[in-house]
Specification:
homotetramer; about 400 residues; alpha/beta; Aspartate Aminotransferase, domain 1; Aspartate Aminotransferase, domain 2; 7-stranded mixed beta sheet; 3-stranded antiparallel beta sheet; 14 strands; about 15% strand; L-serine-pyruvate transaminase activity (chains A, B, C, D); alanine-glyoxylate transaminase activity (chains A, B, C, D); Aminotrans_V_dom (chains A, B, C, D); Tritium exchange subunit (chains A, B, C, D); PyrdxlP-dep_Trfase (chains A, B, C, D)
Chain lengths: ~400, ~400, ~400, ~400
């Protein structure tokens, strides 16, 4: 195989394409993390990061992957043996459940078919049944990266409130943060879990916890052992622009640049763009005569689309052909969706023509793999993009 | 207008998209241009640059634009009042003619309609008529950047040889070098003029002259005044890895990286890729029901395609809509083609999906500008790309 | 204050100056962490990282700070209530002790005066007394970043062996890794804790655990709750070039480049260079008539030197003057050394003239702060640097 | 020899150390040089570059080396056979003379000993003798890069004015621009020649001509053949933010960043810094017991210092030792100074500690080369740096 020219199409649902502007920001020299220039950076970030989460409260930033931020959400709020309520919306919801169990929590796991989000009625029902208030927390993945289904947090919040249940609401926004409308404060979320490598347009390496007053108040009672993830010393040090450990300075440079970019475009515009790109992608998929995995149009994801192939096709073969022939990476089917779906990421730093190039690549790849597709799918997508 | 996300589509016929690998190479610290590390770089480049020109002879590298390399070709080989034969193949051929005149040369300028390359028969005729051998040089633009027409150098060479005429053959490869098959030695070219910002995938700032033995031998007799462009001191200094002036070190870093990339892909593969992308682009244009400016299919350009619109349309309006709505730059109509054509660059560091994205953007832009196009054009292009 | 020209002198004991070559490597586009290119990178790093630790065994790489790697060493090998033996060699040894306690371990903490390393005789004595083998692990900081004292791991190992005690040996090499001779396998260390931002010349953001067979065998019995830090799934996934979470791709790019640089210089040469720079620094300090904090010349640190001022001086005032006037960052006195010492980092990507510039800055800053110094100190340092 | 750690000390008198901030600016993607974003850049630069030259008039920017800007100054103002007055102040003044002769000008070359600047009395005398006003231009090198001698432009201007002579004043500021006080307008200079790679802190690749009204008025009468260097089409195109050729976009990105840095520091502060560093360097040289080549203290250069060794020493051997042992590049002796002097560049993006490191390297290198030096030289330099 010859060396490939041109820019790789990284259209997995994260890591996303890091803008060269962010890469250049990250290439600045590392500085003294105890000096005045660092403090200025950290104090600036402390405020600037809040709007992306839709919060006025504190956001803790970890040098970690997103799974680290999952762990932080649990160990800061819960104690060994605590019961938590979780929902099988897909692969990542299942992994978070596994983590909770490994950390010594008891998980009530509501089964699901991986094509729908969390059912607010199920939340209501479970909590209503929990009259003893034994459930300490509800764990929800906002946007399932393995399925392209977005759960409706406001309705889940309403279900909790209607049940007058005191459980904390912990929400994973790994693949929605900075891409899909999200409001930590307005929606009454207690801990929001995020990461750097998706809508925030950064390389992997930072994890986030946005924290409500209720979660902050609960933390001192949480008895899961913790040190690295402990919010308290971080929040204390952050007051003065520092960290109790050596922070990931260069990723923080990149974070500042990425947040500036989101501000410049405007978060509402960012969300609208993602929504438009998602609509164009679904128009293509449906126009091709294929099935979008997500079955509820109120739960369509703005950041990725999982495409379900018939049982006679191997989705990974399609992906392999597309990678070999067109130098594009798509997301694989995870867990029980392996071989059945491929996932198109349309989040982060993306524009219409790159999305159009992406969809042409998918169409050609499907054809080369022997999947019958109606080329009208592409035109349908272009119609969406062309509309004002 | 809101800030734009995603990567700008730079699809003018140069400057082309500089690979990030080349940008990083250029970001290396500048070094002492009289020290051993620089000499190693320069001696390496001296050899490594030859294959792109198809020559075993010397190639002079100037810190200059391509127009500087035009001037160098003239002042090193010609004397005040010398007659040269040139051909009106387009805007840049006309500009080169103007330069020759400003420098004090007499130009026999064969008129043309900007839709064809140099006619070898016209070369034969003119030279046959010049029995006194008053014509000192024949100036040809290999690939007219303003029209997307590629002149057939081997046939022109044959015409000169058949006429047994001693004129030097000077060829501009500004937008063909590194993109379209070119053979300085095999085709008996005396001076090949090139630049950095097209097929070589670099930013603008370097000009090139590849020089035949015959041109080298002619240079001492050339009496046009010169100092900066003088080959002699440069060739002398280059022997030892140095320059008689301070060279553009960081662009040379980039040049090394770009040449490595061309080697890795293989020049034959590079040319085949450009040819394939050109074919896909023409398939789209013709499929849309529009006209390719170049009228001779043996002269289709591998690096750019000029699209001719009907008189009722304004090509610059199409370009403006495409820039505003889809963040893509296309080439404008130059000189007498202003407003009538737009040009699609498909050269340099490009791949199938970026070209596909480009063509979708052109199609949508045409539609938005009210130019009737048949969407089958895009499918025709994809068929070319999809074929093995 | 006017903007400052020139390059900041970052002479804290880490983060160190990241070579521009590493910064450029980190600026490469992020790729699919489940694709073949990533697997190639990860499999290469898996082997290439071993020699820096002096091990043939596995090294786990975390997206984390060094404190994360501390936690990983503990939670993978120990169970709630386990006794560990630790030594008060300075600020970081004390922080590691605190972490162990927070995680639910019982720490036997041998007090110290922060001017000496771990006394092998004390190790021998404590272990000999522990006939019931209640001590599960010995925690040692190889090079105390707060004091510039290097503990003698081989002698500590010998003490454990002489006592025929089964305790695991856990060693923090945060500020020695890649700077001071270290041999995980030869010295019988069970878990070596490292990080990216010191001798490895990277920005902060990666933590490391090198793991002995004995530690690997102990891990399944360790009952401290863990998920993120759990070695097992990482080691499994690493076999195939992957990670059970999204790894910090761009820092891994930098890691490969940094490891290549260490290979090119040669680890023995790297250690010798650090040793020479440390000797030059001490020559300056002692020549100035000041005191090196470390009192045992067998424990002088190769990577940093803490300078002890008389009680009449404020070390932070000296640092502030040096930062304001000479744009150089030095390390502050930590914990009980606050105000009493400042620390000169001479590790990572450093050469003679940068060290010389550093020492001139320290000398001038001391003079400006009113600390009487003999300028012969600088000449003494230059004599060391000048010697073959 | 082993690979070297740390950052190379590039202390030649240009190219200078390019700030990483400028390198990052240059790494931005190349854009359409005919589009609105480029126009904005060009129009901004058009104004922003003026203060560095001390002019309110136009400044032409060429993709070229500084020698190109030399040629531009001549061909835009002079005609074949014109007489020009020039002065043998050093190697570069001699090269400019050679260029003028090659271009067909007649040069009155006033001999010199390479240790002094242009003598204003000699200017007065020559021009007074030229009652026929046959001298068309006076060519002066402001700061001779080969000798470290700065000619006094205001006194030369006064001499021309006193002689009531109409000759144009052409001044080379290659190694003074952005480093040493210079005032194109106030000093009545007609063409100022500059380049990118010295005080402007850029890589090589840009040449500059600042142009007085008188020079602009003279240009149409100048009959030296020209095309590339012709001011007229460039000035026309610049009005709208464009160039008549493809400009060196990425170097222009760097230029903007460098100009911002000079603005942030303030030009007066920049000049004062260079002056202080020059004083410190001379203090070292004289303290070592060596001779500064420049014999007139009113002509000491603020940007470089040439050190004259006794005939028994080989300056290039000293340089070689310093390069091999301390990874520092110094300037060689050029032309008739070969082997007799080495040159220390202290211009561009430099701070006190890098200069101090430089001087320690020179001192150690001299000692290793067997040149007797008094180490008090270094302390003398530090006294200058330490003083407020």
């Amino acid at each position: 195989m010859t060396a490939q020219s041109g820019r790789h199409f990284l259209q997995i649902p994260g890591p996303t394409n890091v803008p060269d502007r962010v890469l250049r920001a990250m290439a600045q020299p590392t500085i003294d993390h105890r000096g005045p220039d660092f403090a200025e950076l950290a104090l600036d970030l402390r405020q600037r990061v809040k709007p992306v989460f839709g919060t006025g409260g504190p956001v803790v930033i970890y040098p970690s992957s997103g799974t680290g931020a999952w762990e932080a959400a649990l160990v800061n709020t819960l104690s060994p043996g605590d019961r938590v309520l979780a929902f099988e919306t897909g692969h990542f919801a299942s992994l978070w459940r596994d983590m909770a169990q490994r950390l010594g929590l008891t998980v009530d796991f509501v089964p699901g078919d991986w094509r729908r989000g969390v059912d607010p009625a199920a939340v209501a029902e479970r909590l209503a049944a929990d009259t003893a208030h034994g459930i300490a927390a509800v764990m929800v993945v906002h946007n399932e990266t393995s399925t392209g289904v977005t759960s409706r947090i406001p309705e889940i919040r309403a279900a909790i409130d209607d049940a007058e249940h005191p459980a904390l609401l912990l929400v994973d926004t790994i693949s929605s943060l900075g891409s899909i409308d999200y409001r930590h404060d307005d929606w009454g979320v207690d801990v929001t879990v995020g990461c750097s490598q998706k809508g925030l347009m950064l390389p992997p390496g930072l994890g986030f916890n946005a924290i409500s007053d209720k979660a902050l108040a609960a933390a001192p009672q949480a008895r899961l052992p913790k040190s690295y993830w402990d919010w308290a010393p971080i929040l204390d040090a952050n007051e003065h622009g520092f960290y109790p450990y050596t922070p990931a300075t260069n990723l923080l440079y990149g974070l500042r640049e990425a947040l500036l970019m989101l501000e410049e475009e405007g978060l509402r515009n960012v969300f609208a763009r993602h929504s438009r790109h998602a609509a164009a992608t679904r128009a293509a998929v449906q126009g091709w005569g294929l099935e979008v995995l997500c079955v509820n149009e109120r739960e369509y994801s703005g950041s990725l689309t999982a495409v379900l192939l018939g049982a006679e096709h191997d989705a990974d073969k399609v992906r392999r052909i597309i990678l070999d022939r067109f130098d594009m990476s798509l997301g694989t089917g995870l867990g029980k969706l392996a071989g059945r779906v491929f996932r198109i990421g349309h989040l982060g730093d993306l524009n219409d023509l790159t999305l159009a190039g992406t969809l042409t690549g998918v169409q050609m790849g499907l054809e080369l793999a022997g999947v019958a597709v109606d080329p009208a799918g592409l035109q349908a997508a272009l119609s969406v993009l062309k509309a004002e």
